[in-house]
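Subject: sequence -> structure tokens, single chain

Hey, anyone have a minute? Need the predicted structure for the following. Not urgent.
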Amino acid sequence: MPQTLVVKIGTSSLTQPETGLLALSTIADLVETLSGLRRQGYRIVLVSSGAVGVGCARLGLTERPRPIALKQAVAAVGQGRLIRVYDDLFTSLQQPIAQVLLTRSDLVQRSSYINVERTFKELLGLGVIPIVNENDTVAVDELKFGDNDTLSALVASLVQADWLFLLTDVDRLYSADPRSNPDAQPILRVEYFAQLKEFQVKMGDRGSRWGTGGMVTKIAAAQIATEAGVRTVITQGRHPKNIERVLNGEPIGTQFEPQLRPANARKRWIAHGLVPMGKLYLDEGAVRAIRNAGKSLLAAGITQVEGEFEPQEAVLLCDLAGEEIARGLVNYSSHELQKIKGSQSEAIESILGYPGAETVVHRDNLALSGYGQG
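Reply:
Had a minute. Here:
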């Protein structure tokens, strides 16, 4: 089975920092690298930022717009220009591409998630390189990915990628911003995310003048991807040929070790496709039953309910300290759970006045977070 690579390149790498104009030499190197890897047999998905930045340059705007309607209009201008540049360059190397614009709602509904999954499968089977971006023109805040780092991680999970490359404006992860702190220490490998606390990593919360991301979003994306079993690399976007060097075993960038994949497509969807609408805090017994024994969640194990949600919406399952241990589809509304939390299953009917499900979250609708998810 050929390996699948998802490559995300950020606005800071695609554009010139002062003007926001496209960095054509970088894009050409990226296109040449990905086309070469495709000829070697790799299946490639490119997640590309830059539509808003390119739209700003095209319209003569001096900074990224803030009003949603203006940003969406600018994205519509920039997206056409950006995909045309990609198409011209890939066509010169006889590599077919496809444009795929997604919103979070495309992944929230199970039927549309499966449809997107099938579309990617067909495109990759045809030897096409899909070029993915968030559909900024129509996305609303409640259903936005927020940044293309998150989008790329979710796409990597969707296509069951082997690698996710996050190309950015630094060569790897550091304990602090190396551009302002000469004592920043490079981090070459992350085997588990608690290491980042051990390394005392300090991260800025946004990226360049033209972009939306920062190292915070890249680490969050790495966590999503590695929990889906995808090895993730943060490396310098101005040198796309680093991708080949990493694949050849060179210790470039920061590599995040993959964790165990969810067992099936439905659990991948639950783990990474859904937007959690609330939180359930569980006692130690319930945590052990779910994490170690693969049990369903019962009302007796719930100590606290946060958020407002309806049956069959997604919720986070947390231990008493608030650490996420799993997420799943809930059988009760938040209003009902406030009444039955901590109660035995046989008491539910008398409390609510009508019969209900024995389980709050059935194990078939539950995906563990972190190591050992299944």
